[in-house]
Design brief:
The protein is α+β, with helices and mostly antiparallel strands. A hairpin with a 2-residue loop joins strand 3 and strand 4. The longest helix is centred in the first third of the chain and has 10 residues. The model has no long low-confidence stretch (mean pLDDT 94).
Length: 256
């Protein structure tokens, strides 16, 4: 089965068995992919408020009850095992990257699922906008910026963006297509001039894999669901679990 036609359930099963550990870009076309943040219940309201105040990088797909592990958007799934990779943070520092968070699970954990721009990549490709990282089988490039998010409670920090090089003649088309999907970040937040948002070197992304920007292309930057990970680090939350950048929960929800 080609990765684009693989069902979300089949991909989640491969993650659960440990047979799949790569980026989910290009998999399960026309399905919503979700970033994930898990925080102790003590911090759940702060994160909910942060998402409401910053809907561009943090478009809410679902918030699970404390201790719940099966999301409504992916019946039968287990958020502890069904992503390709997870990151564990303590006091704002990344301390581990694992394939299964079951040993770390607590009944007071609240899980947030946030829309991911991987969800509209198939629409871009079908619309005649090629994506180099998909063609090359790489993770998308992601960068920290100097753009401050709206703080909420104990949470504060800057926006993270994903970057896709787009041919100049396709920029308007890419903006128009992605704008149809506000639940998964929507239109870009910046076009060209990475220095204006605090990115000094496109060849050195903070997350993901670098891709070249050709002479006839412009870098387009979309708000990214890795933003809460940067916020957790800046805010020094005592404990948090997230998806590994580029390794999403593929849900049963469709983008159409």
């Amino acid at each position: 089965m080609e990765k684009c036609t693989m069902t979300p359930r089949a991909l989640r099963a491969l993650c659960r068995s440990g047979e799949f550990s790569g980026p989910t870009s290009g998999y399960a076309d026309n399905h919503v992919q979700a970033n994930m943040m898990i925080v102790p219940r003590e911090y759940a309201f702060d994160l909910l408020l942060f998402c409401q105040r910053n809907p561009k990088p943090c478009p809410l797909v679902e918030v699970l009850d404390a201790g719940q592990t099966e999301p409504r958007c992916a019946p039968g799934a287990d958020i502890r095992t069904d992503l390709p990779g997870y990151r564990i943070y303590e006091q704002g520092a990344l301390v581990d990257e694992v394939a299964d968070i079951s040993p770390h699970w607590r009944d007071d954990f609240v899980t947030f699922l946030l829309g991911c721009s991987f969800s509209f990549e198939n629409a871009l490709i079908k619309g005649g906008v090629p994506l180099r990282h998909v063609e090359q089988g790489r993770n998308v490039a992601m960068y920290r910026t100097n753009v401050a998010c709206q703080p909420a409670g104990r949470l504060h920090g800057n926006l993270v963006v994903s970057m896709r090089p787009i041919r100049s003649r396709d920029v308007a088309r890419a903006v128009e297509i992605s704008a149809r999907f506000p639940q998964v970040h929507g239109a870009p937040v910046h076009v060209g001039h990475p220095g204006l948002i605090g990115i000094s070197d496109l060849a050195r992304p903070d997350y993901g894999d670098a891709v070249d920007v050709m002479a006839d292309e412009l870098p387009l930057f979309w708000a990214c669901g890795v933003t809460p990970q940067a916020v957790v680090q800046a805010s020094r939350i005592p404990f948090c679990i997230s998806h590994s950048p580029g390794k999403m929960l593929v849900t049963d929800l469709t983008t159409g």
